[in-house]
Design a protein that fits this description.
- This protein is mostly helical and 206 residues long.
- It has one domain.
- Helices cover 63% and strands 0% of the residues.
- The protein contains eleven helices and no strands.
- Helix 1 runs antiparallel to helix 2 and helix 2 runs parallel beside helix 4.
- The two termini are 26 Å apart.
- The relative contact order is 0.11.
């Protein structure tokens, strides 16, 4: 699971890979990873505590830019779980965020421009252009779920991308996004007149 959450490290430590991070930064990164794992597992109380710890550490160090990146991780986790809010934590820090982070936030909100898409990580660009068929090419499970969430938010999700998102969440044991994506499958099946339940995951009580 830790490998699947490397997006957190990418966002938090962008430009810092040439030397070991200071203790405060390593601590914040650890808290942010634990936040992501807890949030996706549906452990809201643990997730909130870890995010608060990470954000406090970054703010105490005077790194408003990293606070903004941490807020983006929280926004991405929400989108992966089909929770489409306005990302107020990042919006409050937008002025301190680099252009790449602003572009990523625009994409998460479903409002990315062509210039924004050009600034996204390479593995997200094809999907950002509306190509749902490119979703399986995203190797990182968390990044794949985030991209699937954006497709859903922009009404570009296909039946195949919905199944892939649910399978990804199930494989990782991420209960929060799994339940959300299974709910979408069920709703789509009902709308199509098919009352059969979507395939259950291993941890679901039938």
């Amino acid at each position: 699971m830790r490998k699947a959450l490397l997006v957190s490290a990418v966002l938090l430590f962008a430009g810092c890979a040439s030397k070991p991070p200071p203790t405060w930064q390593a601590d914040a990164h650890g808290s942010l990873e634990r936040y992501s794992a807890a949030y996706l597992a549906g452990e809201a109380r643990v997730a909130q505590a870890e995010f608060t710890r990470a954000r406090s550490g970054l703010a105490s160090a005077g790194r408003a830019d990293l606070v903004a990146r941490a807020e983006l991780v929280r926004c991405a986790a929400a989108v992966a779980s089909l929770e489409f809010g306005d990302c107020p934590g990042f919006e409050a820090m937008r002025a301190d965020a680099p252009l790449d982070e602003q572009a990523y936030a625009a994409w998460l909100s479903g409002k990315a421009s062509a210039d924004d898409i050009a600034r996204l990580p390479v593995h997200h660009r094809a999907v950002a252009l509306g190509n749902a068929d490119a979703l399986p090419e995203i190797e990182d499970p968390f990044a794949r779920l985030v991209a699937a969430g954006v497709l859903m938010r922009t009404n570009r999700a296909t039946p195949g991308s919905i199944v892939l998102a649910a399978d990804t969440a199930s494989t990782q044991g991420w209960r929060r996004p799994l339940l959300a994506w299974l709910g979408v499958q069920k709703q789509r099946a009902e709308q199509a007149g098919d009352r059969r339940r979507p395939r259950p995951w291993a941890g679901e009580v039938i």
